[in-house]
Amino acid sequence: MNWKELFPQFEAGLINAIEKEAVQRSFNAGDVLMRTGQYIKSTALVLEGRVKIYRENQEGGEFLMYYLGPGQACAVSMICALQSHTSEIMAVAEEDSEVLMIPVQLMDDMMNKYKTWYQFVIQTYRNRFDEILSVVDNIAFRNMDERLEFYLKRYVEKTGKKSVEISHQQIADDLNSSREVISRLLKKMEQRNLVKLHRNMIELVQ
Amino acid sequence: MNWKELFPQFEAGLINAIEKEAVQRSFNAGDVLMRTGQYIKSTALVLEGRVKIYRENQEGGEFLMYYLGPGQACAVSMICALQSHTSEIMAVAEEDSEVLMIPVQLMDDMMNKYKTWYQFVIQTYRNRFDEILSVVDNIAFRNMDERLEFYLKRYVEKTGKKSVEISHQQIADDLNSSREVISRLLKKMEQRNLVKLHRNMIELVQ
DNA sequence: ATTACGCTGTGATTTCTGTCACATTGTAAA
DNA sequence: TTTACAATGTGACAGAAATCACAGCGTAAT
Q1: Does residue A166 share a domain with residue A116?
Q2: Could you list the residue range(s) of the whole structural domain that residue B58 is in?
Q3: CA atom of B180 to C1′ atom of D13, Å
């Protein structure tokens, strides 16, 4: 597939610049793109697959922020890139993924030269900011049952699948909860006829 | 006081543009600068005082995101401004405040024309993003006692005072908790000799 | 088929937090 | 001073969620 189709708004000069300077890399499911505390050398544009962005703390806890799909970019890497800061988040490929890596040094120049890049960056900021705001809403105002429903809904939206093919343990990790709690809440959802439970798979009803 | 001293990095042309087009407004403590769901007509630069940015939900819950002090700007209003979106947050003056309001229509032009404005906006994004990340860390990974300590610490950092001059109820609101819980945790902190409690005032011991 | 292991179900218990009820105290207004 | 009210202290209880313990069940490897 041609990556340009994912970014039809990009102007010709920008496309040339990216083609000349950016590197396309493949990641296997589970590969780490970016680690907490690491220096950021490039901004990542996702072309294929799915990349999970999450926060990590010292005690080994995790917390899912959001997913990046084809056509999306990591706002954190843009912001950090512009100031050669270290990363505050983890980025891991959830599926086998293709990612376009744009070296930091180009960012500033591209922002000035290419209006469509500038707009893309601004748009990315806004979208990620919004996602984080809804994440904050969820943990600040909602109980685990509602957070779980939100999580499942977001998962199917993001993947396009109609079932969530992961284990209860993984969900617990993403929500910084525990496996038993998630299992019990899922059972309750099944009783309310919202989901059907299978091994490694949660089917959303309707 | 001259507002330009707060933004020594701004170039001459930018200062002229702001002086010609922006409006300086005064807000009393408690005044609402921006309301959830409202259309954003301008970007706010805080010159004096302190503005509280928080999230609100339907059931009347609140949740403090961060404060803006002199020289700081609201990232949300910038992002929204650039796309004439509605606000997702509440902004309220905590103290009597002076704020420079820059009409949205100018934002795009200023971003292109003035390099120092562009850098200021990027810097603002990064700072607010970082603040939200540490907020997420706190609610995702920490119990209320640690969140309270973080809250008090941030308060004294932001105000420059060495004591927190607000009621337990207000703290509870900011943390989306309840007054009794905060009172009890503060008592425990007092027993650990971290604070001294007074009426409407919490003195930090160090 | 047998084994091993990861996934899921479920009870019991504990901790943290929110809620209700009510007492006490400090401060400002009458 | 007396009154009124807001702020704080505290016990009792309820509910959400974490933790521990262990049983049953699928599936993949042998």
Answers
A1: no
A2: 3-140
A3: 14
Reported as a single tens digit per residue, the pLDDT across B102-119 is: 998 898 889 889 999 998
Q: Which of B59, B126, B140 sits opposite A63 (nearest CB)?
A: B140
**pLDDT averages per 10-residue partition of chain A, 206 residues:** 90 96 95 89 94 93 96 84 71 96 89 92 88 94 98 95 96 98 98 96 92
Point out the domain boundary residue: A140, A160, A182.
A140
Q: What secondary structure letter does DSSP report for A175?
A: T
Are residues B66 and B158 both part of a single domain? no
Contact B141 A111 (CB under 8 A): no
- Chain B CB contacts of A80 below 8 Å: 126
pTM as predicted: 0.92
Residues B198 and B162 in one domain: yes
| Closest Cβ–Cβ partner in A65, A83, A129 for B79 | A129
Instruction: Tell me, yes or no, whether A60 and A133 share the same domain.
Output: yes
Give the span between the Cα atoms of A139 and B87, in whole angstroms.
20
Between helices A104-113 and A12-21, what is the axis angle to 10°? 170
Domain final position from B119, B140, B161:
B140
Separation CA A185–CA A162 (nearest Å): 19
